Amino acid sequence: MREVAIVAAGMTRFGELWGASLRDLFVEAALDALAGAGADRLDSLYVGNMAGGQFVGQEHLGPLVADHMGMTGVAATRVESACASSGVALRMAFMEVASGFSDLVLAGGVEKMTDGADVAEVLATASDQETEVYHGVTFPALYAMIARAHMQAHGTTEEDMAWVSVKSHRHGAANPKAQFPRQVTLEQVLGSAMVSEPLRMLHCSPVSDGAAAVLLCPLEQAKRYTDRPVQILGSGMATGSLALADRDDIASLDAVRESAKRAYAMAEVGPEDVDVAEVHDCFSIAEICCIEALGFADEGQGASCARTGETALGGRMPVNTSGGLKSKGHPVGATGVAQAVEVFEQLRGESGERQVEGARIGLTQNMGGSGASSVVHIFKGV
Amino acid sequence: MPSPRYWREIPSRYRLEATKCSSCGKVTFPARKVCPGCRSRELGKLRLSRSGRVVTCTVVHVPPGDFLMHAPYALAIVETPEGARLMVQVADCDPAAVAPGMEVALEFRCIRKEGHGGILCYGYKGVPTPPAGAEEPPLAAGNDAAAEKPQPAATGTPEASHA
Q1: H/E element holding A123?
Q2: pLDDT higher than 50, residue B163
Q3: How far is CA B27 from the centre of its chain?
């Protein structure tokens, strides 16, 4: 297997981007990545997208985006794993380059969520239609049930969860591409409208449009494109039961734990080696469960990390320096690659006010549904 | 939901049919072809008890379109005495009173109306079981509380009369 590097990254601003279509967004991010590497060709591309068919009535995204990038003819594949779609697209691109099948592959993701579709209903298709959606389940409801289980098992409080949102917005306030680049107070989070008890509006990531892309090649060819490549040390993916009721421990995201274990093993590093991480905080409780599953906090001990500043910039394990899904925005199919863009920039020392000093090893964790699919990547600046 | 799909799901929706693995004993709802515990294909049919205990729960304030008139409503994962877990709404009570550990009876109710034709879709909802010695269960603010009132009461919904 060949060593693989990311040599360039591109990303649109995240937000309600009414002036841009799905194809516009993808093309902007992809051309941004190609320009960053000075590359004018591709062997293939992967486009992560959860629900173009439902959000804008558009499927068959591979040829569409290749065509609009001016790359007609290139092999192009759409990848779907709900909100983990582009994390998995990155994994596919990594495998294609590592295997020696291709030398220059683009991994991107895009979602256009604000064109009028019923977003809650579209997102709910990532849960179990027969046993969950039938009874009126929404995604906030599923994560609220995970939150209740975590509170019951570990004594986690609403205030613990609110601190995660406060921390994310503090980071996101310094991210010019974030959908909500502004700080929120603990009181604002705890006083925001109830969505699904105990989760309030400011515990939930927003509805967003956006796209992100990274360009991969063999590490030994990386210097053709950049002086500061970022190597992908490991990739791990795992699945769990789609229906929340089928999990033995509802407060524990087992697919996240397993995907991390596989990525750590491949990268030959452990959680203590990671300097900066982007994790899938679709809801505040999700960040708490994910940092436990990734080994950044002991089981049941993730709740206090945002309050104590351990996961804040300057803390022992900075998490979601981009602002996370909460503040940066969550165009679901774009999120996994957008996380890689943040870590790519961190490991190149390009994150400005959000820079983690001396960051060398980075991690991204992207999950679909209520944690039924999870993909983890580990990166190293070289 | 197209009617063949609804018809296909009747064994689980109407009869709470689950499978019990003859190899490891795991009970899975709805019925499956392969045991998720041990991958055995030797599964026997089992009908679940009409009762259970709340494992975790929430109150939905922002519902999907089909449930707009139901909110706020309680959703819970309930474990039956056989060890199967299922997602249900918990009705006939103040949704905020639903909590982990609560005992519920599973009652056959109207769950939703689908499509322009308003096809009625049925299934089970949890209803709190009164603690020993208590009188009538409270009929205050629940979604189904208006079942016996002919006029559309503030807390009731058209669906409630079928519940």
Answers
A1: helix A119-124
A2: no
A3: 18
- Residue A123 clears pLDDT 60, i.e. is over it: yes
For residue A218, how many C-alpha atoms fall within 13 Å in the half-sphere facing its CB?
Answer: 11
What is the distance in angstroms between the Cα of B84 and the nearest Cα belonging to chain A?
Answer: 8
Higher pLDDT, A314 or B1: A314
Average pLDDT, chain B: 85
> Strand ranges (DSSP E) for A74-208?
75-79, 105-112, 194-196, 199-200
Q: Which of A377, A201, A209, A212 is nearest to A283 (CA)?
A: A201
Helix A284-293 to helix A139-154 angle, to the nearest 10 degrees? Answer: 60
Instruction: Measure the CA–CA gap between A316 and B162, rounded to whole angstroms.
Output: 56
Sign, CA torsion B42/B44/B48/B49: negative
- Report pTM: 0.93
Region B10-33: mean pLDDT is 96
Q: How far is CA A125 from the centre of its chain?
A: 19
pLDDT of residue B130: 80
Residues B9, A149: C-beta atoms closer than 8 Å: no
Give which of A355, A336, A333, A357 is closest to A345, Cα–Cα.
Answer: A355
Please say whether the beta carbons of A50 and A111 come within 8 A.
yes
Mean pLDDT of A202-207: 98
* Residue A239 predicted with pLDDT over 80: yes
Rounded to whole angstroms, the Cα distance separating A180 from A323 reads 9
∠ CA B7-A124-A248 to the nearest 5 degrees?
85
Chain A (117-146) residues lying within 8 Å, Cβ to Cβ, of chain B: 118, 120-121, 124, 130-138, 140-141, 144-146
CA-to-CA dists, residue A310 to A180, A307, A315, B118, angstroms:
23, 8, 4, 52
Report how far residue B110's alpha carbon sits from residue B114's, in angstroms, rounded to the nearest whole number.
11
pLDDT score of B62 more than 80: yes
Q: Is residue B154 over pLDDT 50? A: no
Is the minimum CB–CB distance between A82 and chain B shorter than 8 Å?
no
The span from the CA of A256 to the CA of A238, in Å, is 7
Q: What amino acid is encoded at A370 in this protein?
A: S
Task: Report yes or no: A264 and A36 within 8 Å, Cβ to Cβ.
Answer: no
The phi, psi pair for B77, rounded to 5°, reads: -95, 125
**pLDDT score at B142:** 47
Q: In terms of Cα–Cα distance, which of A238, A329, A204, A321 is closest to A274?
A: A321
As a whole number, mean pLDDT of residues B26-46 equals 97
Peptide bond into A318 cis (omega under 30): no
pLDDT at A289 over 80: yes
Active-site residue A330, yes or no?
A: yes
Q: Which residues of A touch B65 (CB under 8 A)?
A: 118, 120-121
